[in-house]
């Protein structure tokens, strides 16, 4: 115990969560640098694009699904590490 009455070991979950988040961001950065031809978000196969003479409709279905899955996994990892 420290002088404030809280155990210093209880904050380690938050620290590990930040480490994992940092590693994920670093991984995304490495992919961005070393794989420039990797499909960018918003231009993935399965995204809907309808072009007319003077208009364009775009709905990134696959991009939305991919972002949802990645964010769900990140949140699950953070919750698991913080326990």
Summed up, what is this model?
This protein has 83 residues and is mostly helical.
Properties at a glance:
single chain; 83 residues; mainly alpha; two-stranded antiparallel sheet; 2 helices
Instruction: Give the % helix.
Output: 40-55%
Q: What's the overall average pLDDT, rounded?
A: 80
Q: Return the string of H and E elements.
A: HEEH
Sheet with the most strands, sense and barrel status: 2 strands, antiparallel
Strand content: 5-15%
Q: What's the arrangement of strands in the largest beta sheet?
A: 1-2
**Helix/strand structural class:** mainly alpha
Q: Measured on Cα atoms, how large is the radius of gyration?
A: 20 Å
Q: For the record, give the distance between the C-alpha atoms at the N and C termini, rounded to a whole number.
A: 20 Å
Count the E strands. Answer: 2
Number of helices: 2
Low-confidence stretches: none
- Tell me, what's the shape? elongated
Q: How would you describe this structure to a colleague?
A:
This protein is mostly helical and 83 residues long. Helix content is 54%, strand content 10%. The chain has 2 helices and 2 strands; from the N terminus they run H-E-E-H. It has helices spanning 12-34, 61-82; strands at residues 48-51, 56-59. The protein has a two-stranded antiparallel ribbon with strand order 1-2. A hairpin with a 4-residue loop joins strand 1 and strand 2 (56-59). Helix 1 packs antiparallel against helix 2. The longest helix is centred in the first third of the chain and has 23 residues, at 12-34. It is elongated, with a radius of gyration of 20 Å. The two termini are 20 Å apart. The mean pLDDT is 80.
